[in-house]
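Response to reviewer comment R2.3. The reviewers asked that we include at least one raw input/output pair. We reproduce the pair for Glycosyltransferase involved in cell wall bisynthesis here without editing.
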Amino acid sequence: MRAAVVNTPTLAYLAILNKDQSPGVYNKILGTIAGAQKNGFSGRIWCDTFSPGFLRRMSEMIINSKEKNLIIRSLCQYNFYLIYAFILARIQGKRIIIDVPTPNRVAIHEIANGNQGVLGKLKSLFYLTVFGPIPYWFTSGVLQYSNESAWFLLGNRSKTKLIGNGIEVSALPVRPKVPKWTGDRLDLICVASLNYWHGLDRLISAISIVNSCDQQLKIYLKIVGKGAVFDQLKSQVEELNLIKYVQFLGFLKGESLYSQYSTAHLGVGSLGLFRKKLNTASELKSREYCAVGIPFITVGEDPDFGKDAKFRIQLSNEESIMDLIQFFKNFKPEQINFSPSEIRAYAVQHLDFSVKIAQILK
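Raw output as returned:
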C-alpha cells in the first residue's frame, strides 16, 4: 500500500529593506514565518535592498516563486510597478497578501515631508495618489494596521483587514520582578528609536510641571534608544533642569535591556500619534511591553487591546499635555497593580505570531 502524500501549505514573505537598518521590521518578518510554521506551513523569507533593479527582482520573485501564498511588504508608491507580476501570479493560482505597515494616507505626508528632491517627491506622490487603490485590485488581501482613507479603500474594502502587529512572545523573557511601590516616586521607561511621533517632548514637559509642584510623588524617566530627536530631548532636559529625573541610557539590547524593565513601574509608548495624523496604530513597542509584563501608557486606539486590557493606559491623543499632568497628579497605585505573568498571558493569547498568522491565512 502506498503511503498517502501530505501536501504542506507553502508561504513566502517578500520584502525590500535593509535588515541592518530596520532590525525591528526584519524581526517581525522572522516572527511571521515562525508563526506560519507553527500553523503547519513551510515558509521562507526573501529580502532585497532598494538598489538599482529592485522592482525587476521583486517582480521576478513574485512570478517565479514556488510558494502558493505570498505576503508582500508594501512598496507604497512603487506598488504600481508590480501590477503585471500580481496578475501573472494570480493566474498561476497564487494568493497574494499585501502587508501595508503605514496607511497610504499617512505615507503621503511622510513623502511630502521627506528628504527627496522636489522632482522625486512629485513623481512619488503622483504614483501613490493617482494610482492609489489600483495595485491592490489584483491581490487577494490587504493587511492594514490603522484606518485607511476612502480613496485607497476603493474596490478593496472587502479584502482589507485591520489587524494588529504580532510578536514572538517566547523570544522575550518575562521580567522577573516589579519595583517596590514607595509612594514617593513613579519610575517610567521608554524604549524607542526616538522620533517626533513618540511625543517624549510632551512627557518631559509634563514631568517638569508635575515635579515642580509641592507634592510627594515625583516622576522619573529612563529613555532607552537613540534617533532623530535624541539631541533635542537632551537639550530640553537640560533646559528644564531635569537631569536628576530623566536619564538617557542609549541603545540597549538583550539582558542589558531586559534588566531595565524590572526597574520601572510603567512603560511609555508613543505619545504623539496625532503628529502622524493617526488615531489608531499597532505599535511593536506596546507588544514588547506586554510580552515582558509591564503596564504602559500610550495614546490612540490599538486593534489588539480592548477595554479589558487595563494595563494599557490610554491618554489623550493631542498636543496638550494636560492629560499627562492630570494622570501623574491623580496617580493611583492600583493603575499598576498587575503581575508580569498576568500581562504576559494577554500577549500569548492575543499578540503572538502564531495567532496573527492564523488570522491572516484563514
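The chain has two domains: 10-162, 170-350. The mean pLDDT is 92. Further pairs are available on request from the corresponding author.
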